[in-house]
Amino acid sequence: MAFELRPDWLALVEEEIVDPSRRIVDPHHHFFVGAGRFPAYDAEDLARDTARHGVEQTVYLQCGEGYREDGPEALRCVGETESVARIAAEFEGPPKIGAIVAHANLSLGAAVREVLEAHVAASPLFRGIRDVAAWDPTGSAASSTVAKDAALYADARFREGFAVLGELGLSFDAYHYHFQNTHLTELARAFPDVTIVLDHLGTPLGVGAYAGKRNEIFSKWARDLGELAGCENVNVKLGGLAMPWNGFGFEDQPRPPTSDELVALQRRYYEHAIETFGAQRCMFESNFPVDKLSLSYDVLWNAFKKLAAGCSEEEKDALFHGTATRVYRLG
Q: Which domains does the chain possess?
C-alpha cells in the first residue's frame, strides 16, 4: 500500500489556533526522503506544519531512513542518527530538533552494545531506540509483519539486548498493536529501571479482521492499558489514532475531520490514558507525517488542546511539553 499526502484536501478544513501561546514539544515525528511507501517529508515541511502552534522542540522517531549503505549490517542503522543529526545542525528552525530515537536490533543480545554505543558516539541528541514489535497474524494492518513473531518482547535474546539498553541509560519506544499491550507490561515489569514510552496509545486496530469491533476492542485495550499503567517506568504518547489502520476512515471522506469531530470520536481513548497514567506520564504527539494522511497539524493540536481543556495548568504543562522534556532529556 502506497500513501499520498493531499494538501488541497487538507486545506478544506481550516481553523483558528486554540490557545496559541501554549508551549509545545512534539515528541514524535519522522522524516522521509520519499523513495519508499511514504511521500517525502523534510525539516522545512515540519516547520510549515508546526508554525501556527508555535512548537518549540521536537523528537525525531525511528522510521528506517538514512541508513548507511555499507559496512557491518548491524551498524547500518546508525546512519539514521547521523543523518538526522546533520539535519538538526543545519536546520535553523523553529522548531528545534531536540532529540533522536533511532533503531537497534535488540535481538542481537549482548552484541547490541556496539550498535548502541555507536549511536551515542554519532550524536549527543541520541536518546534511545525503537525496535518495532508490531505483528498482526491476520495481515489487516498496513505494517502487519514488521516483527518476526508475536512475542518479541518475551524473546530471551531480545531481553538480553534490552538489558544493555538499560545499562547505558537509554530509553525504549514501543510500537505494537493493542493486543500486544500485555506483552509490554510483562517486559516493563522485568526491567523496572528502563524508561519505556508506549507509542500511539498502543495502536488499537480497526480495519480488516478488527473492523466493526470498536467497542469490544476498546474494552480490552482499556483493561490492558490500566495494567500497563501500574508500571511506573512506562510513559504513553497520546496520538497516532488518525493512522488509516486505526479504522476511523478519515482519509476516505470528502473532507478531513474538524478538531471537534476528532474529539467526539476519540475522546474516550485520551481520557482513559490520562486517568490511568496521570498527566505526568503522558505526552501529546503528532506522529507526522503519518497522521497527515488524515488531517492537518493545526486541526490535530487544536483537538489536543480541547481534550485537555478540563485539566489544570500543571497537567497541561506536562501533557504538552513537560513529560516529553523529562523523558527525552531535552535542553
A: 23-327 (3.20.20.140)
Handedness of CA 108, 194, 325, 312 (dihedral sign): positive
Asked whether residue 128 carries a pLDDT value surpassing 70, the answer given is: yes
Compare 151 and 324 and report the one with higher pLDDT: 324
**β-bridge partners, 172:** 129, 196
Name the residue type at position 79: G
pTM of the predicted structure, to 2 decimals: 0.97
> What's the rounded Cα separation, in Å, for the pair 258 and 303?
8
Q: 3-state SS of the chain: helix, strand, coil percent to 5?
A: 45, 15, 40
Average pLDDT of the segment spanning 232-238: 98
Q: CA separation (Å) from 104 to 97, 303, 313?
A: 21, 34, 37
- pLDDT greater than 60 at residue 1: no
CA dist 207 and 185 (Å) reads: 25
To 10 degrees, what angle do helices 259-277 and 214-228 make?
40
